[in-house]
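Q: what sequence does this backbone want?
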């Protein structure tokens, strides 16, 4: 992550001069010039403009795609949290960040597909700002290229418009890493507290933040080993290499603490006791480290644990422990101690995580199919970025006499480890896992994009038509490889895009039926929706024996989850829902006079249902992109009244 021995390996992007003002692919010069006078740096101005575009790309028509199965599940429990004030960590729906944040957000702007996805869109949209934190490690063009790739990569865009924790945890982890690098480069301690906060937010978004920690440590070990081997080859002695690293670390810490008041004060006290003490500077240095390393470490750890505990703490117990129960819930609630809440938010949450995810009950799948699935997603969703990452890694290693820069090598090792590890870490074949590979590879990809841009400009400047043509062809291909998928995946719910979309996604047209069902439910008295339970080769579907069981987590059975994402839309409408058991079949249905205005069933039951639903219109939709379908019957008179 760092290179204490050699700042020469870390080009300062702020010192490249006017040649770095241009975008790596051109086209940003005019808006950059407009901002340059205000911010004082062309690269920074370009990154700011890219962030604006990134936010727009993720928020425009954000509610256009119907909720995915996972979005519907988490969204429903956020609505119940909002209604009851009760929330506790359940590992199966991952971290509490989205429930806690969206519960507040819904109170301000209302519950909707747009509002539910907005936190992910905003965090993903701001992600290109990490390029500015790496300014001491990347040249100006490379900063702009990194921001651009993080803004427009199709996989990051699609899942940046999706209410899941993957883009959140990935963005927070990358931001934490960048802040740590910035702290090292600027010799400042305060950014480490920001890094701890972002890492804690990552843990609150999804538990695979642990995988990021493993990748950080693994990539750091490989980078250190790389440096030791390189030095040992030069000196002919592994011991000399180890001693050299220790000396480099000493110089790095000496530079970090230079001018610190504590260090100066300790040195002055030593001189007061012994006027001729030649070791006073060393005493000041060691004394400063002895005091501030424990204090700093404790502060960073407390920051991390405080943020984690806030999100993982059960509600309303947290507010009760803080004496805010009546204010937050509006009604008296049972007492809770700070100690019990702290235990549940830390050790208790850890035990739940271990028993659900780390115990091995969700693993044991074959490796190769999962690896192939992730590689296929990378090829279709982020193929341009992966190719540029390879270009950047080799260009950085072979194009510079000093060898690959530590940051580029570290990010490449991190991305490679993620590619190897995530087929093991993930419990289902899900394309969103590829996000965690794309994020670190964006750094070498930025180097590759800047290198191609340099080749294009150099070819034109020198009259080398072949180089210019090849570089231009690469840039045009990259543009096509980014623009076309983004246009295609924008709000896609089509099986044609199955390499990037996850299978539990309904088609968008189903949302029309849900809007009509919600409108009918708002005007209807009594039961609004009847689910027709059925038995399939995969078990009971659509039936819940006790509908009141879905008022709090976990839901009763046997098959509430088979209705998702529909409960999210019906709960928002305040619909009164019931279901018929599979064994009752059609003889157990309500009479025509008592039949709810909305009936939902599997296609296999629709043919027998239709004669019993006189005056109902029937609509069939893809309920899962390539495995299931659903039929919605809506009373035409009730719908007409609702529309009026």
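A:
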């Amino acid at each position: 992550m760092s290179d204490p021995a050699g700042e020469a390996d870390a080009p300062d992007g702020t010192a490249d001069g006017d040649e770095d003002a241009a975008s790596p692919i051109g086209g940003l010069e005019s808006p950059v010039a407009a901002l340059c006078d205000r911010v004082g740096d062309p690269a920074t101005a370009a990154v700011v403009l890219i962030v604006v575009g990134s936010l727009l790309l993720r928020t425009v028509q954000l509610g256009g795609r119907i909720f995915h199965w996972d979005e519907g599940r988490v969204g429903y429990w956020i609505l119940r949290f909002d209604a009851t004030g009760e929330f506790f960590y359940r590992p199966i729906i991952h971290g509490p960040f989205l429930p806690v944040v969206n519960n507040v957000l819904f109170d301000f702007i209302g519950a909707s597909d747009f509002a539910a996805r907005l936190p992910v869109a905003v965090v993903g949209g701001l992600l290109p700002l990490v390029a500015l934190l790496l300014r001491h490690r990347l040249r100006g063009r490379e900063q702009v290229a990194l921001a651009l790739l993080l803004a427009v990569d199709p996989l990051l865009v699609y899942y940046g418009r999706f209410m899941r924790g993957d883009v959140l945890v990935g963005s927070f982890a990358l931001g934490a890493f960048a802040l740590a690098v910035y702290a090292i480069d600027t010799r400042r301690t305060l950014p480490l507290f920001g890094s701890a906060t972002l890492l804690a937010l990552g843990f609150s978004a999804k538990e695979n933040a642990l995988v990021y920690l493993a990748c950080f440590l693994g990539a750091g070990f490989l980078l250190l080993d790389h440096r030791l081997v390189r030095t040992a080859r030069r000196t002919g002695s592994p011991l000399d290499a180890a001693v050299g690293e220790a000396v480099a670390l000493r110089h790095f810490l000496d530079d970090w603490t230079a001018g610190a008041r504590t260090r100066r004060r300790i040195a002055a006290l030593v001189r007061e006791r012994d006027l001729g003490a030649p070791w006073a500077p060393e005493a000041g240095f060691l004394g400063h480290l002895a005091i501030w390393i424990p204090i700093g470490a404790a502060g960073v750890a407390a920051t991390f644990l405080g943020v984690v505990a806030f999100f993982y703490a059960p509600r309303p117990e947290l507010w009760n422990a803080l004496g805010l129960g009546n204010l937050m819930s509006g009604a008296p609630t049972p007492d809770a101690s700070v100690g019990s809440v702290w235990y549940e938010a830390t050790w208790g949450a850890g035990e739940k995580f271990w028993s659900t995810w780390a115990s091995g009950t969700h693993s044991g799948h074959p490796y190769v199919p999962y690896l192939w699935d992730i590689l296929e997603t990378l090829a279709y969703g982020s193929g341009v970025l992966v190719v540029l990452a390879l270009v950047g890694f080799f260009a950085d290693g072979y194009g510079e006499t000093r060898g690959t820069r530590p940051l580029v090598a570290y990010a490449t090792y991190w991305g490679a480890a993620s590619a190897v590890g995530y087929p093991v870490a993930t419990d289902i074949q899900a394309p969103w896992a590829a996000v965690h590979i794309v994020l670190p590879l964006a750094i070498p990809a930025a180097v590759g994009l800047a290198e191609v841009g340099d080749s294009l400009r150099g070819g034109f400047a020198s009259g080398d038509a072949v180089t210019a043509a090849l570089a231009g062809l690469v840039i045009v291909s990259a543009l096509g490889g980014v623009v076309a998928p983004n246009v295609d995946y924008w709000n896609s719910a089509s099986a044609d895009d199955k390499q990037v979309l996850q299978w539990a996604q309904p088609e968008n047209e189903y949302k029309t039926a849900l809007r009509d069902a919600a409108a009918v439910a708002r005007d209807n008295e009594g039961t609004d929706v009847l689910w027709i339970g059925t038995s399939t080769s995969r078990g009971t579907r659509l039936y819940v024996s006790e509908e009141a069981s879905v008022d709090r987590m976990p839901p009763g059975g046997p098959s509430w989850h088979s209705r998702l994402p529909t409960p999210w839309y019906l709960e928002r409408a305040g619909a009164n829902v019931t279901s018929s058991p599979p064994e009752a079949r059609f003889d157990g249905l309500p009479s025509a006079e008592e039949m709810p205005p909305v009936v939902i069933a599997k296609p296999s039951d629709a043919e027998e249902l239709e004669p019993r639903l006189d005056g109902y219109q029937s609509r069939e939709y893809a309920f899962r992109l390539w495995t299931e379908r659903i039929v919605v019957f809506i009373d035409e008179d009730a719908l007409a009244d609702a529309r009026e």
